[in-house]
Amino acid sequence: MSPPSRPDLHTTREALRRGAGSAAAELELSIDIARSAACEHAFLKTGFDEARRLAADPATVASPLMGLAVSVKDLFDVRGETTAAGSLVLAGAAPAAQDCPPVARLHAAGAGLLGRTNMSEFAFSGVGINPHFGTPANPADPTVPRIPGGSSSGAAVSVATGAAFIGLGSDTNGSIRIPAALCGIVGFKNTARRVPTEGALPLSTTLDTVCAMTRSVRDAILAHEILADRKVPLSDVPLAGLRLAVARAWMLDGLEAPVALAFDRALAALRDAGARVEEIELAPMRDLGAILARGTFAGAESYAWHRDLLAKAGDRYDPRVRFRIEQNANMKAYEYVDLLQARRQWIARITAGIEGFDAVLSPTVPIVAPPLAQVAPGAERDAEFFRVNTLLLRNTSVVNMLDGCAISIPCHTPGELPVGLMIWQSAMRDDTVLNVARQAEAALAEKHR
């Protein structure tokens, strides 16, 4: 099982530069997909006419993105539009006066903004359910509606269906990598400080990261270069020149059979291609539960942002989101300060534990996408929803606590539900992670052939 086939951004740009087709025709194909049943509930608002105008502008066609379709999560300010973050309570808020920096950079690069994508309300869930506007179904399985993953659910579906070449989203505890893994596409979480967060509605000011999903690693590199306004130096170091770690503690616990199988095959493919893959315990990983026992950054910081709004309109929130925010209402100031200190110490221990490795390998999430019906809105399914949400966030949130960078690339074989391989490192090692991912993607593709 896999998303419908459409060439990635690089292939499409190369064809257009050769004179094969036009940006306007490619945009119309994107619009057709966005309007199709495959993208039902993926978009909360569309801007087809403005995108068409850009795709017909010769100056746009000469730009890096050539007027090709990009989607924007409903978390980001776009001039003249309301940023509601998938909620009802902000639906009447004043429209943004200007584009936030990431959107401005996409505009400057010639993006055709297809529309605003659906999301978990206020980005507070890895599942992707939205009870207000519906939930887009994962396109990887045409027979059983499955969760898309969240919180960047609509962004993932827009890319996986081929409607958008880049899906702008955010990653606070895994909100880019989780839906990328479940939908069978690529999701890159850069080091948080690389891309400005101004003009993005916050979940956790400590952990929030602005980043994107794409259909290939090379497209992920281009998207990152645009969003971070920097050039990624490409390396030709082969897999045989890389030393990669597999973290046993925490990351490999309780894997579903399809995930364990795909992950083991991916490791075998990398070893066959010459990579030195070594298992390490990385014991400090198991300390995370105790560190977060009294509260989390996302919980404390989201409550600080939402407390007045909850007092006025709490009944209009997704009940599951409201519950998670209010859980942290009683976190004490000294507990928050202790959490900051514990994080600094934990980062130092994890960084020391992976010293000498080019990157670390883990399953992105320990499960494949469960059916939507299993976690749909309803008090009778709340326990299952929270169980699934905890599992989805488990591996990816490690990298956010580390202040690190990570990419999820597909590692399943055709005909299987998608599984993501997460390649990660500590802060500011983005270029290494992206270059390792280029090599890993090629090795996995060769193995599948």
UniProtKB/TrEMBL annotation:
The keyword DNA damage does not apply. InterPro entries: Amidase, Amidase_dom, AS_sf. It is an enzyme of class 3 (hydrolase). GO terms for molecular function: amidase activity. Pfam families: Amidase. Keywords: Hydrolase. Residues 41-434 form the Amidase domain. It comes from the Bacteria. Gene3D superfamilies: Amidase signature (AS) domain. Its EC number is 3.5.1.4. This is Amidase. It comes from Ramlibacter tataouinensis.
